[in-house]
Amino acid sequence: MIDNPEARALVAESLVLGLSKQGNQSIRTEFHLSWAMECIGYSFNLAPRKYFNTIMLSITIYGNWLLNPTSAPGFLQMNLGFYQREILGHFSIAFSRQKDSLKQVEICTEILTIIGEFIRTQKLELETWMCLLKLQLKMTEEVLNNSRILDLLSYKALKTFLQVWLCSNTRDEYLWNTFKDMLYKNFDNLWVVACWTSVVLGLTKRVLNLLYGNIDKPLKIKFYRPKGSYETREVFTPEIDSEQVFYFWYRLLMVFLNENDYEFKPVDSRVLLVKGISKIIFQFLEICDAGNMNTELEVHANLNTSMSYRASLCLQDCFKAYLNYFMGRDRLPIPNITNILGLFRSWLYSITGSESFYTDLERSEAIKTHCHILSRAQGPCSIPDLEQFFIRVLYEMQSKSTKVCSEICMNFINLPKTNLKILEFILKPDGIPLMISDFLNDNLIEITTRRYCYKLLSIFANLSGTYNIKQLSSIITDAFFKHLGEEKDNEGLYLLIWTICSYLACLDNEEEILNALLRGLTGRLGSLDESIGNNFYVLIDCIGMLANLIDKSAVSIEVIKINVKNLISFIPRRGKNAEEIFCRIMLCIVDWVIAFPMVLCDQEIKNYLLKYLQMKKIFDKYTQFNEFLKDYLFNYIGTPECTGKWYKDYSKNKKSALFYSDTGVFSSEETEDYGIFNIKNHVGSFVWKVSQAEEDFQIKTTDITLNLSEKITTSQDYQEKTYTQIDFEDSLAEDFSSFLNIKHLYDKQQSLINDFKEKNIPTPSFCKVITNRKTPQIINQNQHKAKFKIIRKLASELGYLDIQTIKSIFPLNESSNPIFTNIDSETLQPLICFPIIYLPTPETNDITCMSSSVYYSEDFQDFLQSFGSRIFEDEDFPSFCKPHLEKFHSCLYKYHGFFHSVVVSPALCKKNLDFGIEKILEDYKVVVIWNERCNDRFSSKVPNIFHKVDKKTNYTVLLTPIGKKLINVNLEVPDEKQGPLLDNMIVSLKNLTKLLMFSIYNLECSFFTRYKTWKKRVDMIKECMSKDDGEKKDNIVDVLFMEA
Q1: Per the omega criterion (within 30 degrees of 0), is the bond before 5 cis?
Q2: Which stretches make up the Ral GTPase-activating protein subunit alpha/beta N-terminal domain (predicted)?
Q3: What is the predicted pLDDT for the residue at 660?
């Protein structure tokens, strides 16, 4: 033995140098091999700076022997495992503490690289694996305890150590405990947490692929940086058995998940751990999202050939669930809330709560993750878990941490639709609403957080009346008042405007709140700069829309007068956008005047209105806009609109004629029993159905009211008294006959609900039914029958047979007939048409959803019937319904104040339709889908037909019942096109229809639409009048009095 260290170093250096030059030829016996390895091993004890080249040569020699055993000495190959363990032991010496840290880092890095390559390319004996694991534990611990090389070598050492650990497939409990203690002991090193997260994240993806995805997809471990954007540094793809994946995933996950003593650990490491575990949980949630979005799920491989028998047994239940789901006997096989919380419940609860020592950043991350679990994983959540969640959220709100409360606002948006318990929790006034109010009152809060507050407020604000929570209404109203006048963010103000709109539309018997908020909206218009953003015009549209959305009986006429005067005061006299603003505000005023005609009793309003209606100089872009306003006002004020000519197959004895004059176009049609008289001019379309009463009928003059739900044909005795609206409750006490009438109406409506597909549904009346004064019944069989006997009498009474008028009324020539027909299809107001598709389950295909089902839920039937009167193709119907009736054979029609709606649905058809969903998407821009979820009330799966919708060409409204007649609304529309119905809003079934109608109107139409519709109609009438072939024509007298 050589005792002198320098002599030893010299011998080792000489041998290493000679061996590197001569190769294995100098090793002729096993003794030579042992002596050489002893010298090489000793070189790792030498000073790194002084003997750096010698050490690197030693590493090269050993590296060649490990990675290419065939090039090693023959004696080494004969006992390969033993010498491999010797080499690895010698490598470990280099990790001992040295003075020159920089050179030691280079040496250790090279050794770790060789070890990493060694485990990937060579097959190791079990004993070698055990030796390597123990040596790696020791080497890694040396690195983590050496502050001189810690920062430079931690990542490489930990990464190699975890790679060795994965490939070893060890089940040794002592080693696992040592491994766990070592990681926990060095928790303050960020690379420990980062590398652990990388490995567990990769294993989690592989486990989820085995359970829910492609089991042939290989395991990939992506090592990330501990800070910044999680940039990938290296990808490790070991080939390990599926059973080992499950075992190592769970054991590694529990290394930090089972530990709770983090109070005195460094905050940076704790934050990194919290974010790392959140990323692991989000892997589960991504599988949930993928399952909810996929149209089809498949089992990608055969269990028997892809994994071991034990692993196959573990996955049998999962694959049975897949098969049952395919056959419609089980739920969608994705991770559920209970299972995810079963793994992470304790960890989540330890971070939040009254006894938590974690920072705001950590608690906010935990709250965010918990919210995502509840909103994205398969429900339902158990009551105990919900209660624990509520307790922690309440505590965090009471602590008033800005960071944590911001996360609550941002992540609670998707929660109400998942569970009614969560919705009820949100509606508690001293919880979420109060927190939102405090947040909005804080001027230092970030704009993004304020927007989320408005979004969360929009979800439940309209429900305060439904649940009759006075304190909640007070908090919401106060927030509206304060921030409507102060909000400067365009997006926040946009959300606030439409939230107030929907809130007012759903108010019942809240006159004080309604009047105050209406004044607040008009007041905000005066302080809003039209040059900044588009909210000025949005607010005008909203105010005009509210005239037909609010409960008219609950608003004060005096408040309406004040609002109208305010609107008049906002009309500009000059400016860049003066014409645009003038037209919009005037149309808004006219909408309110039509809805509340009593405002014209105010002389000031009347004078201003007449003054502005006479203005002409201002109109350059919107020519004749004042004429449009006059026609619009005079046509609709105080009376519902007559919708124009209808289609019907009359008897063969029908006689018809078309006439024109300087003021309009009109037609007459007559059968043996009645006549139809229709006048069309700039004002609109007026229709009379006239029948002649004979002597034996004693008919008195009655108060005629147009009813769009059913025709009234029974006559009533005339009584000379003032007609007033009947109070049915008083009438029941006074007159039993009134009770019978009401009972008849009730029975009729009940039969409608029981079977809304039957044709005994009352049809709307599209004309005024007028019965002529009594006429003696004198029939002369020898007398010739004149044309238009009934119409002739009506035309005479209307003054059209006056001697001056006769000369200016002429029949239309044949070339004008097509134009006249087209006028019938043009309403004076916009028309919105859309289909409603009923889906029993989200998995329903496009063929099934277009068929006529035998079952529709009660809520859906109530919803569908609320869209108006049922019209069939073989009955009376407005002209604009014709193309829809040709496809669906029936439709629903309704008038909404300043637009018409036609709704079609396969649910209204008695037979299956002969076209698919593609045809509907082609013909209609907006599609409404009712997602019933009969197979799973807690399913979050996106309906399969959603994937057929092109978001560039179609807008989609998804309605999902969540219980207690509440509907969740999801919109696939641009944010700037939303209206009273906002995305993620929860709406009661009672208020859903009107909010949906006006939202679709806002989506499809604009201020310009009504003017454009009027202009088109006026031009068509002018064209109809201008067509004249120059031939001499008969006048109206010649036609009406000509003999048959």
Answers
A1: no
A2: 103-213
A3: 56
